[in-house]
């Protein structure tokens, strides 16, 4: 009897998770087709002369037990055997690096580190807590007049919220007040998306920061005072933006996906790189095969019983041999994506430091959100603070300077030298670095990094209705579903697609509900135990 096969487009978190789940839970053979030569998609790690770049920063944190345990089966937590956190999260069998348990990460590479989270906003050439807290420090930095305006504005929004909440601007105002929104959210958010917040759907806020507000931030601070710091990695009662620690692979997120890819191949799966999906061959409402090309133009056809796509919706909709209806293509062609540039800067030191009892030390932030409107850069990543092993020489500081743009923008087409000069100049301008301290640099460009919630997104249901009629085709992951999913959400869509194949379920509504009804999925409970 011929073994059933699943053709998977894309070797990012969702594609590789689907392949791994199929191999460990079914008799279906996965064949993964990746257009680049790297594993992990935007969750890859780029190694530049021993200095590693995490594209965008990927905290390994999820409120799903299923995802947390999946990660720790692949890369065990680096901790001592008498650590209660380690005991709790090492109860599952570890398939790789069993000797890593209880060892220093220097002695075992295949491990997760438990890292403290700290992010701040840089505004008025000063640091503010993120999420913003109305602490004494914040109020002093803002000044009396601005603080009064923020307070009055927040009370007004709390008592008389906007009745309509259709745009992201309305979403922010209802939770923070118009003044606080304008001070700490508007500039950065519009850098990310390139359009005013009143043109972005409120759905983005509902997915990314649905539980965050002034009130939730204050309650979190009070719980810390009365309960003290916690050792629970899951932090299930904590809004995602308020978590205080997270897991992180020793050598960055790509280490996770390179390990998963290696296991897939060892278990009999196949992975092809430099392989671009071109044409889906269908028979009625079933997909039968996928035609691909490589860099030299060679064509190859892969036949399969199931098909998973993590490719951008816009691309996959144009690949059907039988074109979708005109209205569906109209929606697909009107979807918008934001692209991403990271400039890696290696420096001897920063001009900004943390004052400690031992003197000045490197600031502890993972991310710094740049709210200053007079520069284009949006966010600053300090890779030393994600993992000390991301930096070849710990005496140096390794930064990622992040720019959000469109491929049609002038900045996307700047030469690497001009891009480095822009990043160096802007960081110098706002007082974070001295340009003379720069030792080396690298530039990375990632297209279609962020699926946008404007353009024709409000008509996306027309695409979903059409594609869901193909019984053996599953759209999963961030770009596959045109949804701004985190890594764990993308993985869950893959896991649940495999659940549906095993159970014979044809309704795909559960997949589309991931990251919109997460509490619902967690309350189901049994799946965490059965498949963790």
TrEMBL record:
A Pfam match:
NAD_binding_8
Mind telling me which InterPro entries this protein's record contains?
FAD/NAD-bd_sf
Q: Name one GO cellular component term.
A: cytosol
Protein name per the record: Amine oxidase domain-containing protein
Q: Which domain of life is it from?
A: Bacteria
Q: Which GO terms describe its molecular function?
A: flavin adenine dinucleotide binding; UDP-galactopyranose mutase activity
